[in-house]
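STRUCTURE:
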């Protein structure tokens, strides 16, 4: 988890402001530089804008990597940004995403802190780009186990959510409900406001009325509160 002031800004979708707080350190140290790149990549995910700034921040972090684990973490972030650009139709960078995540896997030492996040992102590529739910599930399960072991609550919320998506896709609504509920609970406890609307909407999609209507209305309220972010929820909440 980043420092409290950075986290509060990030959790409310103020990525530019959070990145600005890291800018001074980010010019000279790998850790803050990578955190800054990750913040700006997350901004791309939620707003579908800011791609050049995220690329610049990532290149700066890559230039500061000195160890194999640092290079592996930078490659993981590179793979994620390439995945996002592909998934949202900015530019087809699927090959770059797979190559970068493969490079990350080769560089990160066994038991490295970045392994669960890498597994999660490999799951995203398998699910969204390769349409391989079996490989995605295996990767998400590894990521989930690693996130729980490392007490990484935010990553755990993401692994719960994506495992639930796969469960819903296969018609296992009980497991999907469990995963979506856990994901929403964790995000609420963390104060991860920017991620609450997608979690509410996912749960609404499998709940009966009138609970589905209540969850949908709460998601719409948060969406308006955050000035229409995540932008890709607009059609579902319109």
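SEQUENCE:
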């Amino acid at each position: 988890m980043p420092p409290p002031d950075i986290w509060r800004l990030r959790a409310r979708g103020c990525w530019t402001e959070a990145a600005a707080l890291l800018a001074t350190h980010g010019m000279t140290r790998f850790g803050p530089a990578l955190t800054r790149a990750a913040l700006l990549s997350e901004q791309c995910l939620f707003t579908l804008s800011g791609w050049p700034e995220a690329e610049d921040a990532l290149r700066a972090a890559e230039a500061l990597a000195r160890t194999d684990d640092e290079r592996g973490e930078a490659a993981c972030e590179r793979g994620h940004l390439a995945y996002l650009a592909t998934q949202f139709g900015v530019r087809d960078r699927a090959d770059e995403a797979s190559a970068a995540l493969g490079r990350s896997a080769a560089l990160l030492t066994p038991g490295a802190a970045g392994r669960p996040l890498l597994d999660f992102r490999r799951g995203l590529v398998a699910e969204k780009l390769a349409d391989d739910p079996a490989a995605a599930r295996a990767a998400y399960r590894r990521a989930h186990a690693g996130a729980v072991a490392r007490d990484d609550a935010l990553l755990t919320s993401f692994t719960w959510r994506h495992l639930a998506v796969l469960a819903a896709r296969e018609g296992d609504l009980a497991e999907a409900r469990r995963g979506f509920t856990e994901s929403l609970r964790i995000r609420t406890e963390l104060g991860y406001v920017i991620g609450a609307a997608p979690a509410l909407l996912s749960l609404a999609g499998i709940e009966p009325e009138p609970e589905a209507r209540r969850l949908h209305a709460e998601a719409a309220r948060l969406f308006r509160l955050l000035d229409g972010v995540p932008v890709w929820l607009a059609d579902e909440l319109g």
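REMARK: The mean pLDDT is 96.
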